Amino acid sequence: MQDESGIQVNTRILSHRLSGAQRYLTEILACLPQNITRIAPEKFHHGGRGHLWEQGILPALFRGGKGSVLWSPSITGPLLVRRQVVTCFDTSVFDVPDDRDPTFVKFYKWLMPKLYPRVEKIIAISEFTRKQIVRHTGVPYSKVEMISCGVSDRFHPHDAQAIIEMRTALKIPRDRPYILSLCTLQPAKNLSTLLAAWQQLENRISDDVMLILAGGSGKSDVYSKLDLNHVPRNTLLTGHVNDALLPALIAGARGFVFPSRYEGFGLPPLEAMASGTPVISSNATSLPEVVGDAGILLDPNKPHDFAAAILSLVEDDRLHSDLARKGLERAKMFPWSSAGEQTHRLLRAVLG
Known about the structure:
- There is one protein chain.
- By secondary structure, the chain is an alpha/beta fold.
- It has helices at 20-31, 47-61, 92-95, 102-115, 127-137, 160-170, 191-200, 222-225, 246-251, 267-274, 287-291, 303-315, 317-331, 336-351; strands spanning 7-10, 37-39, 69-72, 84-88, 121-124, 144-146, 178-182, 210-214, 235-239, 255-258, 279-282, 296-298.
- Strands 2-1-3-4-5-6 form a six-stranded parallel β-sheet, with helices on both faces. Strands 9-8-7-10-11-12 form a six-stranded parallel β-sheet, sandwiched between helices.
- Helix 10 (267-274) links the parallel strand 10 (255-258) and strand 11.
- The two termini are 18 Å apart.
- Keywords: Glycosyltransferase, Transferase.
């Protein structure tokens, strides 16, 4: 086996709560040689302490010199290490700063334009993000490599029994079809457009059809309005969904709606397509790169269009089947193995 120990990975984020960044790193690591070197803090470090470890201690742990490269897979990395590849998921601190903590925004807006010109290469997870990195940090376009994310094989069409078990666990009535949306409640996720669309459908769509909103919290004021007097009819709020139940929840939906105004990539609609669930998505930022012609792409500012698309998806079985088929084919274009191979090839090239 070829010695790959010169490839050293900053795995600080694996000590954080599971999210998109942790999924990304876990999937890519599974594709890389097992004899690479992983560098992690001895204790859990989050927020400011984590960044202090990354800037102050990580450079001392990195074995530098020819034949070495550090991969920092989550936007930031140590300024003192030049032989470094950084993965950037998005430039949201510049593009939608109101969605983030002000201290977080201030630090990242200071760090990214200083770090990115210093490192060897930057990985962007979409062409949209690639262009935004160039725009906000001033690095040349050629310095940024676009390597798409993939979709886990956990997301696939599920049999009826798996769907029944999921419905029982989440208290979803067995006989009611549902439209699903997964999102945190940040303003850019644009839940308000979906809620407005659903309210427009109140007297037009069958009472059997439910809207299920699954996800965590965020800075949007939308959630504060979702009390017993404001929740639209036939709407179920699940809150955070256990990771083990998520694939079946997506696979069991009549349709998946993703009205986000801003994404660095857009894993949820990709996971829905891989599950055989038709997708209605915003046409903003990176989402057309992910969905392509395999879903319905709409202006995120037009609730009426989302309402019409949801109604069509519920009532038109031919449209539903066509989008489900196209989505399954589209999802095959995004295997994690391809992302892993491209990442390994780039790290080897920098390694020399």
